[in-house]
Amino acid sequence: MNLTNAERAEVLVHALPYIQKYNNKVVVIKYGGNAMLSNELKKAVMGDIVLLSLIGVRVVLVHGGGPEITDMLGKIGKKSEFVGGLRVTDSETADIVQMVLSGKINKGLVNFIENIGGKAIGLCGADGRLIEAKPLSKELGYVGEITKVNVKPIIDIQENGYIPVISTVGCDKEGHVYNINADTAAAQIAGELGAESLICMTDTSGILRDQNDIASLIPVLKINSVPKLIENGTISGGMIPKVECCVEAVRKGVHKVFIIDGRIPHSILIETLTDEGIGTMIVQD
Predict the structure, then answer these.
(1) HSE, side-chain direction, 13 A CA sphere, residue 273
(2) Measuring CA to CA, how many Å separate 17 from each of 12, 13, 82, 250, 276?
(3) CB under 8 Å to 180, separation ≥6 — which residues?
(4) How many CB atoms lie within 10 A of CB 169?
(5) In degrees, to the nearest 5, what angle opens at C-alpha 22 toward C-alphas 130 and 64?
(6) In angstroms, what CA-CA distances link 116 with 48, 60, 284?
(7) CB atoms within 10 A of CB 227
(8) d(CA 215, CA 196)
(9) What's the rounded Cα separation, in Å, for the pair 243 and 140?
(10) Which of 174-186 are b and which e, b meaning 16 or more Cβ less than 10 Å from the residue's Cβ?
(11) Sign of CA dihedral 11, 14, 17, 21
């Protein structure tokens, strides 16, 4: 898009109130889905994160990587099995999860941010005991339920001018590694940090009253309305645990939680720096 200098100036003036609002505030971004698989979208997402950091927003990036874990397991001839949307994780799978999330994906994102002018440091939940966990259920194996989040490593990194990039691998006091759901981890981390907002990037436009009609998007959702929408099927399938994580984040003190379509380039900036916003915003009653 070709803009005149006057139009560029107008864009910046329009964004100024939002820049002031978010200055020195914590924004946690949960990153995953198709936005993680497309290099073009990845570049847009990382660009948004670097820009927010440069204007004084304390961005924390929390990422998953389910498709890449499935791909790697397939390469070693191991079939992925899911129960209730969660990956059954035996000891061998836990090793693969740690390798893919905390190695390939995490360091790749750090490198991407650095290459476009940002400063980032990668962490996993085992670093500094950031995410402590216990088994969620015997059936799921090394899938973890978070017992404690220690945000000091995140704060230390931020105070030195870096963007924390966190892979959702947890550990227990015996050193066992656990696969942690990224939505759950992002919500807990945002709550412990007292974040201004949590942005959950998904492969949908947000919460729709009619799944086949994008015009039925619910722009603002109060948490006391969620049980009824689950009961009547408006929120269903994999969206239920995602929305429940968002509600938990709000209850822990996060001011606003957004579910946005990560397939739209610069969706993070549209949500944070414009009047219109994008997706569904979940707030207190």
Answers:
(1) 20
(2) 10, 8, 45, 23, 14
(3) 125, 131, 133, 143, 144, 146, 168, 169, 170
(4) 28
(5) 35
(6) 11, 17, 36
(7) 11
(8) 28
(9) 22
(10) eebbbbbbbbbbb
(11) negative
What is the pairing mode between strands 26-31 and 197-202?
parallel
E-strand spans in the chain? 26-31, 58-63, 82-83, 86-87, 120-124, 131-135, 144-149, 163-167, 169-171, 177-179, 197-202, 220-222, 256-261, 280-283
* 117-148 residue pLDDT tens: 999 999 999 999 999 999 999 999 999 999 99
Q: Which candidate, 205, 215, 206, places its Cα nearest to that of 243?
A: 206
State the Cα–Cα distance between residues 162 and 256, nearest whole angstrom: 24
Cα–Cα distance list, 280 to 18, 57, 271 (Å): 18, 21, 10
Strand pairing partners for 135? Answer: 144
Decide: 122 and 109 in contact? Cβ < 8 Å: yes
Per-position b or e across 229-259, b if 16+ CB within 10 A of its CB: beeeebbeeebeebbbbbbbbbebebebbbb
Query: What is the spatial distance between Cα 203 and Cα 260, in angstroms, rounded to a whole number?
Result: 8
pLDDT in tens, 29-77: 999 876 777 788 888 899 999 999 999 999 999 999 888 898 999 999 9
Pull the structure tokens for residue 60. Answer: 């924390």
CB burial of 141-165 (b: ≥16 within 10 Å; e: otherwise) equals: bbbbebeebebebbeebbeeebbbb
